[in-house]
Amino acid sequence: MATTKPSAMAMPSHCTASHRGGSPYTRPARPPTLGEDAVRWILARVREGARLVLAAVWAGPSRGSRAARLCVALIFRREVAPIEARRLLAADLNALHNGIAWAVVERDRVLRRGALRPHLRRLEKLQREIARLDSLCARRGGPHCDTARGAKSRLWRLLGEWTKEAAKFVVRLALQYRAAIVVDTPESESMQELKQSGSYPADRKALLNFGRLRRLIEGLAAWHGATCIEARLYSTLCPQCGTKMTELQNRQVRCPRCGMEARRDEVPAMWAQRRLDGLIGPANPRRGPAPRLVSGDSGPRSAAGS
Question: Cα separation of 145 and 136, whole Å?
């Protein structure tokens, strides 16, 4: 019998307005109900054999209106058999405008590779609108500030939806190929410096928030019994000789020592091949923490894979 391990999943907080207008203590409240997405999420967990271990309910004010919100959060738990990895799925997480460069690799070949990116034109259009509304808010105040807040909420919602779909796509691919996921993210200190510096366009700083994407991949992988490892897969060091590579145009890189040339997004997969035995061997059983994402069937609509 395969050894199983407990895995937990938390439902994203679901909130619904319970009062509109007047005092919540003088007007009868309409009974709050769970939305269709929340109901589908719960049913999916039950079908997966999970059981509810914790439920939390709280009430609070609704941003930008006089409505009171009732919020519900649920945590499910189940036993899952770890999957024995035969391959590696290298996922190089960049700023979201560069997206995720991914590849499924074995020791001597790349089985499949691709990239996942959000709908950049849509995001950039919304960011320009936010900049315009922020300017109006600073000069005129009033309803322009409320409109600006609403636009910012739409931006974060779009980024959040893409992040969840991207995490589902990566984990589903790992399960299909029985591959351990190797996630490489830039160092948090360097990203914090980049956010605080004036060298990065202000309208693109929202695209630097890929930490949530990493956590969702780790969590969903654990829910399904897949291995998720965080390791450096260099994109600017030569996988053949370890020399710092020279950056060329169109994200091409070349090693000044051995002459190897490749697209920058392809180099992490080469490092994954080089380190395959060490990453999925018995000496490296590390797995991700408890997941916080609804599992699903569809990948990001804006994903471009091959």
Answer: 8
Q: What pLDDT is attached to residue 292? A: 33
Residue with tokens 């919304």, as numbered in its chain: 126
For residues 105 and 67, state if they share a domain. no
| Statement to judge: residues 73 and 101 lie in one domain | no
Residue corresponding to tokens 């779009």? 158
Q: Where are the alpha helices (DSSP H) in 178-283?
A: 188-196, 211-223, 267-274, 276-280
> Is residue 196 included in any domain, yes or no?
yes
Sequence-separated (6 or more) residues with CB below 8 Å from residue 155: 123, 126, 127, 130, 206
pLDDT digits (tens, 9 = 90+) for 180-194: 999 986 655 555 555
Q: Are residues 212 and 279 in the same domain?
A: yes
Mean pLDDT per block of 10 residues along the chain (306 residues) reads 65 55 45 79 90 86 66 88 92 77 92 88 87 90 88 88 92 96 72 54 57 89 92 89 91 92 91 89 41 34 36
Which residues 6+ apart lie within 8 Å of 189 measured at CB? none
185 with 286, same domain?
yes
With DSSP H G I counted as helix, E B as strand and the rest as coil, what are the percentages for the chain, rounded to 5?
40, 25, 40
**End-of-domain residue from the set 59, 80, 101:** 80
Q: What pLDDT does 297 receive?
A: 34
- Residue with token string 């909420």: 153
Instruction: Give me the pLDDT at residue 88, please.
Output: 95
Instruction: Please state the domain count of the chain.
Output: 2
Q: What is the residue range of 40's domain?
A: 5-80
Q: Rounded to an integer, what distance in angstroms lies between the CA atom of residue 220 and that of residue 296?
A: 10
pTM: 0.76
Pair 51, 76 in one domain: yes
